[in-house]
Design a protein that fits this description.
Layout lengths: L1 E4 L14 E4 L2 E7 L13 H18 L7 E8 L5 H12 L6 E6 L9 E8 L3
Parallel strand pairs: 4-5
Antiparallel strand pairs: 1-2, 2-3, 3-6, 4-6
Helix pairs in contact: 1-2
Length: 127
């Protein structure tokens, strides 16, 4: 059964989509950009924006009863591949030791609201 996941601890969707959708034990998290819960962009550097994106992702995972360790796949969109190393350091610290989901990183020409990074994910929800 499909279930919409919503939390007040992450920004509301800025379009006709859900923060996440759960199907059985699988969780599909929509792309998160560096917005706070009031819809304001957080940070001007890739590190600052990445921290906010990952905080949003974590809040959604936790609302669904999942956690960072349950991530299965992560897709990252960067507006400049020169930001890859800085993103990667911040992301790796956030994941923690031994957590290594499948991942793709893609450079794009632009992201919503002119931000530098967007992250979407798939995760497992414990039964």
């Amino acid at each position: 059964m499909k279930k919409e996941i919503k939390t007040e601890h992450a920004p509301k969707a800025i379009g006709p989509y859900s923060q996440a959708v759960q199907w059985g034990n699988l969780l599909f998290v929509s792309g998160q950009i560096p917005l706070d819960v009031n819809g304001q962009i957080v940070g001007t550097t890739i590190e600052e924006q990445t921290h906010q994106v990952l905080a949003n992702l974590k809040a959604i995972l936790e609302e669904a009863g999942s956690r960072v360790e349950n991530l299965l796949e992560v897709t990252v969109f960067l507006t400049d591949m020169a930001s890859f190393d800085a993103f990667n350091r911040t992301y790796g610290q956030w994941l923690g030791e031994g957590v290594k989901p499948a991942r793709a990183v893609v450079e794009v020409s632009a992201l919503p609201k002119g931000v530098l990074v967007e992250v979407m994910a798939k995760a497992y929800v414990d039964a």
